[in-house]
Every structure is written in structure tokens, then in C-alpha cells.
Amino acid sequence: MTPRVLLASCRELPESDGDDTSLPEALAEVGVDASWAAWDDPDGGFARADLVVVRSTWDYVDRRDEFLAWCAAVPALANPASVIEWNTDKSYLVDLAATGLDVVPTELVHPGRSPVWPVGPFVVKPAVGAGSRGAARFDGDLDAARAHLDALTGVAVLQPYQRAVDTEGETALVFLGGVYSHAFVKGPMLSESAVVDGSGLFVEERLRPVDPARDLRRAAEDAMDAAAGVLGLHRSDLLYARVDLVRGGEGEPLLLELELAEPSLGFRQTDGTARQRFASAVRGALARR
Prior knowledge:
By secondary structure, the chain is an alpha+beta fold. The protein has three domains: 4-79; 92-101 and 164-271, D-amino Acid Aminotransferase, Chain A, domain 1, CATH 3.30.470.20; 107-160, no CATH class. Helices cover 27% and strands 25% of the residues. The chain is built from eight helices and 14 strands. The protein has helices at residues 23-28, 64-73, 81-87, 92-97, 142-151, 164-168, 214-231, 273-288; strands at residues 4-9, 14-17, 33-38, 51-54, 77-78, 107-109, 122-126, 136-138, 156-160, 170-176, 179-186, 207-209, 240-247, 253-259. Strands 12-11-10-13-14 form a five-stranded antiparallel beta sheet. Strands 3-1-4-5 form a four-stranded parallel beta sheet. A hairpin with a 5-residue loop joins strand 13 (240-247) and strand 14 (253-259). The longest helix is centred in the last third of the chain and has 18 residues, at 214-231. 44% of the residues are buried. Keywords: ATP-binding, Nucleotide-binding.
């Protein structure tokens, strides 16, 4: 019997932003029947699917509790609901830093609290957010930073801005089934020229493929191992992951984000073999079930 897979999206982007749109064709090549459905569609058929893969569910930010309840109710979800709950709150960065992983210094600022402002430029963003919405960079204007912080709902994240982003961008390394697949570079996004996509769900990214440096590859592998340890999972339990790295003041790799919930995987920055690897990882997840 042909396995049935649903790729979860949202109503604004029913077949993703274009990056994942051809995944059903890639899955069909390995004998998997796949189609798209908005996560909040009551007729989506998620309970009957052999596997539901969370992809472009980017409207969850304002309805996180509802989204997490949906995740918990789906019998076969990738990545697992417990992973998505942990990863959709950027407090997870503190958990990873506690393992000894090199993470961009992160302070969690609770509503009504006054943070310790970093020296030099810094970033303020919501702990629950996607697509860089609500993230802003400041350099010396503490009044503007306080106003932005006060305007955010819930816990905020405060991080020193890593200046290397202006010249090198962020390097995103993608893992499929726990195994490294490919990488791409994201240009600076917190600038006055940043443009929000027409869906209103994310800031448009300037991307290019890259063969990452050896130290970045090692840092990404370390991040995957640390996350698996914190979550009590094997790396292969993570159907997909994206490790976003930047360089610190001494050129050292630092973890900026570890995306395990609904990251764009940069398939358009690769040849077709990355989609084939994704399809094989899905077949592996189906076999383990």
C-alpha cells in the first residue's frame, strides 16, 4: 500500500513560499503519495496520514497554543510535537548554552524586567517568532530599544549583534534524517532595506549556496549532538534540522538559531539531489513507524 504523507502549511502559503513546492514530486519518485494541507484545516485528514511533516506553518506565531495543541493531536508528526514545542520558544538557546555549546550570548527578558544592555550593537526579538518578524537591531539608542522591547508580547531575547553578519551573513547548514545535506548563506536581514514578504509572514531573504568551512561543519555537528542530548532523542529522530551559524568577534563559530520546527530548508539553493535526500529521509521515518 502506498504510504500517505501530508506536508503541513498555512492558508497564506498553501504550498510553501516556493522552496518546498516540488516536494510531492520528489516523494512520488520513491513511492510516497504526498500533498499539501493547511495545518488548521479541519478537513486536512492529518489523523489518517502515515506521516505529517511540518513545513510552512508560519502563521502559528500568534496562535502558538492552538498550534501546539494541533501538533500534540497528530498521531504521526515530524518533527515530533515535543521537539516543536521546545524549539518554537527561543529559550531553547539557553538550554543549549548550558551544555557548553558555543551560542551567541542570549538574555531572556521577561515582561516588565529591565535587561542588561550589551555594549555595542544588539538585537531584540520575541522569544516566540518566525521569519525575523519583530526582530530589530539597535546601536546606542536605548530609548528606541526599550520602546521596541515594551511593544513585544511575552518573553524577549536580547543578543549582542555579531558584526561578521554584515560581511559574511549567516551560514545555514541543513540536516536530513540527522545527516548533513547542504548549506546556504543568508545575507543580513536586520537592515533598513529589509522587505517583508507579501504574505506578511517573513522577511525576504537573500540566499546563495555555499560549501561551508570545516569549523562551521564541526560546529553544526556539535549543535545537532547537543540538541539530541537535551531532547533525549537520536539525531535520526529529527527528519529535518537547520543550524544557523555566525562568526563571533574572534572569528569563532557561534550558534544563532537551531531550527527544528518549520525552517525553510533552502532547496532552491541546491540541485535536485537535496530533495531526493529529503525523500529518502521521509522513507526512513515511515519505515521506523
